[in-house]
Prior knowledge:
With 183 residues, the protein is mainly alpha-helical. Helix content is 67%, strand content 0%. The protein has helices spanning 12-24, 30-138. The longest helix is centred in the middle third of the chain and has 109 residues, at 30-138. 0% of the residues are buried.
Amino acid sequence: MVDTDDYELISRGEIRKLRDQLKSIDPIGAGDTKALQRSLAELDEKLTTFLEVLNGAVEDMHEEDHESEIIKTKIDPIIDKLNQVDDQNKKLAQGMVAVNKLLDDKLDQLNDLVKSLLQAQQELKESVRDALHMMKLGGGASSFNPPATPSLDTHLDFGMPSDKLPPLPSSKVSMEKKKFKLF
């Protein structure tokens, strides 16, 4: 067997330098290994604590999800009922607005009727006053010609035929209470 490796001769000085260099390279000392082991043990303990905290947080999140699901099943029917109440309130409000508009229209009609009645009453007062004055002056009723009776539009539109309207309440007031003064 022939060795084909190339050999080179190195002086002892160079070998000594290499040995010194190897000795100067300080492998991890015995004191440093203990500190490293302590650091690794502390790191392991901290990582274990951290993992425990994370596992607790995950469990809490699962419990909260379960609780929120329970709450949701209890709250959903309440929300549905509130939505129904809201819809009913909207319908009631629309109805109230419609009734208010209808009442305003009827009130306007009644106000117009009252105005025309007051005007007719005023004309009738003047007519009676004129007739009385003429009777005093002329001495008799033969010269009195009453003015034409003003026509009043007393028809109110209640949105239905008049034969379908409910009857008016009967008056049970005694005749003594019915005395009133026209003028």
